[in-house]
UniProtKB/TrEMBL annotation:
<dbReference type="InterPro" id="IPR036412">
    <property type="entry name" value="HAD-like_sf"/>
</dbReference>
<protein>
    <submittedName>
        <fullName>Phosphonoacetaldehyde hydrolase</fullName>
        <ecNumber>3.11.1.1</ecNumber>
    </submittedName>
</protein>
<keyword id="KW-0378">Hydrolase</keyword>
<dbReference type="InterPro" id="IPR023214">
    <property type="entry name" value="HAD_sf"/>
</dbReference>
<dbReference type="GO" id="GO:0050194">
    <property type="term" value="F:phosphonoacetaldehyde hydrolase activity"/>
</dbReference>
Length: 86
């Protein structure tokens, strides 16, 4: 899990499954209060840009925050059970 393109790149170089954190980290770079003060349209634009940046860096998955991590971890565990690698 990382919130920046360089962090995703590091994970890939280490041969790990990588998960980008789009909303709650450096990809957007706002505090929670600043995020809440944005309009839904502004949030959507920033979120789309962050998702795109993290996927372009090679992230296998991208989620809004760690609160969304459990389903991704379950998917990764299922892939590992099938002997799939990143």
């Amino acid at each position: 899990f990382d919130d920046s393109a360089p962090g995703i790149t590091e994970g890939l170089r280490a041969g790990m499954w990588t998960v980008g954190l789009a909303v709650t980290g450096n990809a957007i770079g706002l505090t929670e209060a600043e995020w809440r003060d944005l309009t839904a349209e502004q949030q959507s634009v920033l979120k789309e840009k962050a998702y795109s940046e993290l996927y372009q860096a090679g992230a296998h998955f991208v989620v809004d925050s760690l609160a969304d991590a459990i389903p991704v971890i379950q998917q990764i565990m299922a892939k590992r059970a099938r002997h799939q690698r990143p």
